[in-house]
Write the structure tokens for this entry.
Amino acid sequence: MRAFRSMTPTTMRAVVLRAAGGPDQLAVEEVATPVPRAGEALVRVHAAALTRDELEWPVDRLPAIPSYELSGVVVAVGDSVDDVAVGGEVYGMTAFDRDGVAADYAAIPIELLAPKPHALSHTEAAAVPLAALSAWQGLLEHGRLAAGERVLIHGASGGVGQFATPLAARLGAHVIATASARGIERARELGADVVIDHTAGSWEAGLDPVDLVFDTAGGDRLARSPAVLREGGRLVSVAEEPPHLSGVTSVYFIVHPDRGQLAEIGALLDSGWPPPAIDSVFTLEEAVSAFERTMAADKRGKVVLEAER
Ligand SMILES: NC(=O)c1ccc[n+]([C@@H]2O[C@H](COP(=O)([O-])OP(=O)(O)OC[C@H]3O[C@@H](n4cnc5c(N)ncnc54)[C@H](OP(=O)(O)O)[C@@H]3O)[C@@H](O)[C@H]2O)c1
């Protein structure tokens, strides 16, 4: 391992999920600071962002450190690492099948890390990877959205929606958004052509058929979505398994890390794309409150843990 090891403490704080059951099962513990293996970088975590429902993801491999997206500074690298420099500011999404990044340090395979967008703070940058990659992969890889198509985005001002909405607009689609009252104005600012308050009655009434539904909300909106698709349309959800009906292509997908996509997203953010909305910022010690906040009905944007002492 190269660099700065002498300045890195041998133990660190980490948020640990001890048992299934949600935020009450979290504790902040002193654990061994990871040592980067070949192909990994040790990142001093400045900020780690949280996703609603994510504490349900690692319940088959507990105890587990949550949060799978971070922004920070490389403090050491393992063997065979040439393209990430010590001192470099990076951001990234980490794999769901190993410990996450709600800690002072995280050892991360370098193929998961991209340069942090210069225009964003660490707190803002941490809020980007998981949600933006979900939007990118949902619209492009699974939804195959093309210019001129009509796309309906559910939860257009939420964590994933705030990236999906401007991306769909940039791709030249006609963007119809659903949001609850608190997100209507934000969805317009993000580039939606039409915004529907789904809490104000039947959101699908009077809607002409769409080519693609991209769902980030699940529940009733997802269940009622096949009715607004044209024959042969596509229904893609990142929130939960969509209904499977004949004449409709239905897809639920799990987002995957992608350094190249993150670099493109970073360039868009540096060229003036709207930065992510940050709902609230907590310390590592406040992790229980932070995870409770991810579930709040009045949340507006991402919840972020700052790991600086
Ligand atoms: N499969 C994957 O790989 C993957 C990746 C990322 C996220 N996810 C999941 O996809 C979903 C969306 O992620 P996100 O970061 O966009 O989440 P989010 O911002 O919390 O929620 C997205 C939208 O869902 C609606 N919503 C429904 N229940 C809610 C609640 N209890 N609290 C707040 N909003 C609620 C809201 O829409 P309105 O304001 O329009 O009502 C909100 O804008 C989450 O369930 C997340 O766990 C899965």
Summary: The pocket of NAP is lined by residues 51-54, 130-131, 134, 155, 157-161, 178-180, 183, 198, 216-217, 238-239, 254-255, 295, 297, 299 (CB under 6 Å).
